[in-house]
Amino acid sequence: MELINRKLKAGDTVTANDINISVPVVSPDGVTEHITLHPQMADVVLTSGANELPAKLLLGGSLYDLTMTINV
Question: Which domain holds residue 27?
């Protein structure tokens, strides 16, 4: 997971578009490529300290639960 804006401070809002998730995909011939997706999540207003952002990632018809922690 990568946070696009790394200069966030308390009071800033993080949205799904602020987070990129790179997922490796292996084709039948063994070639690995990465696709970049945004998670499904509610907007989160950051507070001072550790902020846990619950999210979900839909990949190949399966929904995966994720948690990202941002320290401000």
Answer: 2-71
Judge contact between 35 and 22, C-beta under 8 A.
yes
Inter-residue contact 69 to 45 (CB < 8 Å):
no
- CA 20 to CA 44: how far, in whole Å? 16
Dihedral sign, Cα of residue 20, residue 39, residue 56, residue 36 = negative
> How many structural domains does the chain have?
1
Q: Angle CA(58)–CA(72)–CA(20) in degrees, nearest 5?
A: 25
With a cut of 80, say whether residue 33 has pLDDT above it. yes
Residue 56: pLDDT over 80: yes
pLDDT reported for residue 59: 85
Q: Confirm if 58 and 35 have CB atoms less than 8 A apart.
A: no
pTM metric for this prediction: 0.77
